[in-house]
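Progress narrative, Year 2. Work on NADPH:quinone reductase from Neobacillus novalis advanced from sequence curation to structure prediction during this period.
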Amino acid sequence: MKAIQMSSFGEPEVLKLVEVKEPVPAENEVRVRLYYAGVNPAEAYIRAGGYAFFNPDMPFTPGFDGAGVVDEVGPGVTRLKTGDRVFVASTMAKRKTGTYAEKVVCDVEAVHKLPETVSFEQGAALGIPVTAAYRALFHRAHLKPGETVLVHGASGGVGTLAVQLAKYAGAQVIGTASTEEGIDVVRKSGADAVLNHNQTGYLEALPSITNGAGVDVVIEMLANVNLEEDLKLVNKFGRVVIVGNRGSLDFNPRLTMAKEADVLGMAVWNAPLDEFNESLIAVEAALNNGGLQPFVGTILPLEEAAKAHIQILSSNAKGKMVLEIEKD
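Result:
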């Protein structure tokens, strides 16, 4: 079968399209014939080498997320059967052969049913982004129905899903984006209000949007730029969850004191396995009940994985980038 493989760490050019042997599922494992694979910044960091959370042996096929049809089940698998439409979220799986490939094998717990109302490219947009959004909202911020959430940088793969999950849980949701196209994506994701974070004074609109009630939770995609303002705007006992950061900053920690505000880090790789599996069960339910419709941005063919790695780190994301492996 065809797969993207790297034999060393380095620039995107180390990603090569090669022929490899089909992986075979063992006990409690599933093989999925993939139509699309998700592309995440984490995979670019892993490819470059020195990523704190994951350092694979070589040769290595990247990719943790994907969607397709169950091709074969190993002994002991009863929840899934051959032919089931599924999405793959293999970040925490004990075995994961990589989704930048025509087929992937991983633990059955990492494979969940995909309803007919959700396309395969949308299914590939789940995985890391949706488990990050779920963990940030519910395991870290402990979001409650009726609270107000600001998703700071809401047009990307994590942001659009965070908007939808928060709305599905009964929160008021405000999103920010930097372009008219991004604003439209956030609005279509269900946000109650959308702000352009490239406009001076854009946060001044928050009191009128919330009728003076303020913001309880901030999901932050660029903490080095926004954290200080986040701490100024959150309510008493507010929570800021840092999902993304690209630098350092100098701010006064006293901002956390008067409100007893919490600044919380978040990394999917740190999730206890029971919490990770819980998030996937919740996501499957939300998909079945119409609470999630992933937004797909750029679609590239599998052989352009190197180009995808360049774009995922350099462009303003609009939804989730995916690789097309086979047309369904």
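Residues 129-269 form a domain with the Rossmann fold fold (CATH 3.40.50.720). The first strand starts at residue 2 and ends at 5.
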